[in-house]
């Protein structure tokens, strides 16, 4: 029996999101109508396309023409030069305003492909087939697209909502444990800020989640995606409540920038960011019991150790964060497991705690 998709209603219409072990089958008829008679650009890496070619071909039968465009795996592919190359290749291949784009892959492909679709001919429609856990619970949901600059992560981009997302659970069985672990930081983030049941699920079933146990992983994905859909629907352009989804990302993105894009994995960076946010929150009254549970779960995920870092470039990267306002930068802090707030914290306070945090990371 077909599973009904989630519906993310936004200012441009509705994004339909299929989840679970039959997502590709469930979405096939609607995607076929969307592709019928169109030229479709499939943006993916060579390795991912080869691994999942057969599954994708089941969606493509009605397209008039399929053009494959390559993006390298990894954070280093998120550049303006990559987007320019993709746009030029689409022009040469005859792309039109009613052509289609499909992104197939992880978060990098989602970010770069969505940005290219949003810029090409001032925006053409696209759909997403995320093949990693991180992309399924985060990058593919909400229409944030963009690339990095050397000075700051995700600092050039736009909101461009996909028409549909097909997150088939069968893709996750091909992922190595290290990729599942990286994505689990984003799942834990959602639990901390909005879903104590999800947090408890990760606490009690971490081993199953890290070995891609189908039923447990499907429950975690559905809960994480449902939270993000609700937040994006209420605040599409991140003016208010959607900013809570940046828990751990303020310091996390700064660390990625300072250490070097691609040298520190995103999950590890966000994990360190959530640890630091927990420290700030505890100083403002977060119960020690909740703080200890957060630290314990993050510790079980085993973040990569940070190299020796100077504080000045980290603070500068924080000031350049894409979420900053002219009035300064607010921090997302847990109030309790399942609740979070956006708090204004002075730079002096951040600097004081950051000095101790960086020292502790090396001990």
Feature tags:
alpha/beta, 13 helices, seven-stranded mixed β-sheet, 363 residues, Dehydroquinate synthase-like, alpha domain, Rossmann fold
Describe this structure in words.
The protein folds into two domains: 6-173, Rossmann fold (3-Layer(aba) Sandwich), CATH 3.40.50.1970; 177-361, Dehydroquinate synthase-like, alpha domain, CATH 1.20.1090.10. Helix content is 49%, strand content 19%. The protein is built from 13 helices and eleven strands. The chain has helices at residues 23-35, 46-57, 80-92, 107-119, 133-139, 177-194, 196-210, 214-234, 249-259, 266-283, 288-301, 311-319, 347-361; strands at 6-10, 13-20, 39-44, 65-70, 100-105, 126-130, 144-149, 152-159, 164-168, 330-336, 339-344. The radius of gyration is 20 Å and the shape is globular. The N and C termini lie far apart (54 Å). 47% of the residues are buried. The model has no long low-confidence stretch (mean pLDDT 93).
List the helices and strands and how they pair.
Blueprint: E1 6-10, E2 13-20, H1 23-35, E3 39-44, H2 46-57, E4 65-70, H3 80-92, E5 100-105, H4 107-119, E6 126-130, H5 133-139, E7 144-149, E8 152-159, E9 164-168, H6 177-194, H7 196-210, H8 214-234, H9 249-259, H10 266-283, H11 288-301, H12 311-319, E10 330-336, E11 339-344, H13 347-361
Parallel strand pairs: 2-9, 3-4, 3-5, 5-6, 6-9
Antiparallel strand pairs: 1-2, 7-8, 10-11
């Amino acid at each position: 029996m077909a599973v009904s998709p989630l519906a993310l209603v936004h200012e441009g219409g509705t994004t339909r999101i299929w989840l679970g072990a039959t997502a590709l089958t469930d979405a096939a008829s609607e995607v076929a109508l969307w592709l019928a008679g169109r030229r479709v650009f499939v943006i993916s890496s060579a390795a991912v396309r080869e691994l999942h070619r057969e599954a994708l071909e089941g969606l493509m039968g009605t397209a008039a023409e399929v053009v494959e465009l390559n993006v390298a795996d990894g954070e280093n592919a998120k550049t303006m030069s990559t987007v320019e190359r993709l746009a030029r290749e689409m022009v040469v291949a005859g792309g039109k305003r009613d052509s289609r784009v499909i992104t197939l892959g992880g978060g990098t492909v989602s970010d770069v492909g969505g940005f290219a679709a949003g810029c090409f001919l001032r925006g053409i429609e696209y759909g997403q087939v995320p093949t990693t856990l991180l992309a399924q619970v985060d990058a593919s949901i909400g229409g944030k697209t963009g690339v990095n600059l050397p000075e700051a992560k995700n600092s050039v981009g736009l909101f461009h909502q996909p028409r549909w997302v097909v997150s088939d659970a069968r893709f996750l069985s091909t992922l190595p444990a290290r990729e599942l672990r990286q994505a689990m930081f984003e799942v834990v983030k959602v639990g901390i800020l909005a879903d104590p049941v999800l947090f408890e699920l990760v606490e009690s079933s971490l081993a199953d989640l890290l070995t891609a146990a189908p039923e447990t992983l499907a429950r975690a994905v559905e809960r994480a995606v449902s939270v993000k859909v609700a937040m994006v629907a209420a605040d599409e352009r991140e003016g208010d409540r959607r900013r809570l989804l940046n828990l751990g990302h303020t310091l996390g993105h700064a660390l990625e920038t300072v250490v070097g894009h691609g040298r520190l994995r995103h999950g590890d960076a966000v994990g360190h960011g959530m640890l630091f946010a927990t420290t700030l929150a505890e100083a403002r009254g977060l119960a020690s019991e909740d703080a200890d549970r957060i630290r314990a779960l993050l510790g079980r995920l085993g973040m990569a150790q940070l190299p020796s870092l100077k504080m000045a470039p980290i603070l500068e990267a924080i000031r350049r964060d894409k979420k900053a306002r002219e009035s300064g930068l607010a921090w997302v802090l847990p109030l309790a497991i399942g609740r979070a707030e956006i708090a204004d914290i002075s730079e002096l306070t951040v600097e004081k705690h950051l000095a101790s945090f960086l020292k502790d990371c090396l001990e």
